[in-house]
Amino acid sequence: MTATVRQKSPVGLSFGRIGAIVLRHYYLLKGSWTRILELAYWPAMQMIIWGFTTQFFISHSSWVARATGVLLAAVLLWDIVFRAQLGITVSFLEEQWSRNLANLFVTPLKATEFALGLMVMSIIRTVIGVGPAVLLAIPLYHFSIFELGLPLIPFFTCLMIMGWGIGLAVCGLIMRFGAGAESFAWATVFGFAPISGIYYGNP
Questions:
Q1: This model's pTM is above 0.85
Q2: Which of 39, 104, 163, 167 would disulfide-bridge 129, Cβ 3.0–4.6 Å?
Q3: Span 110-123, mean pLDDT?
Q4: What pairs with residue 18 in β-bridges?
Q5: Helix segments in 15-150, DSSP class H
């Protein structure tokens, strides 16, 4: 009789169960072109709108002319936080809408493994959502966020962790207060925008 080998991390987490959560949501995303389009649509629209705004300011403000791309960089980087948070909360809501949470937690799946699976899926959703906007900014406005160089990696990591933190907090609110708290999935992150200096912080 062959024993089933289960890969586990040093802290007792199962990579197989984490991977199963990722695959479940990956197939859900892959099977719906409307979901993929929605992910890429809003970041691209924001980038185009703020790109036009930046072009206007460049011709009317010497400060913006000296700091070309500052607004585009702010929009694209802030959208990483937003998409990271949505990647957690929307995936969680997909389970709730399909009434699948109870099915998941009668299995050996741990809450930590579930959260880690949602985090991995959040990275995939963020890359799909923000990636096209980042690439479109290069030919449209001659601005590349990759010009930040290696500091972009820790910056991206910090933004993702911030988004995950907000997303997990929102999931907790939804579990505590039910469907009435679902609007927090889209509204909460914007509460941090005024105190984050996205568009008016010092460059």
A1: no
A2: 39
A3: 93
A4: none
A5: 15-30, 33-60, 62-66, 70-97, 101-105, 111-141
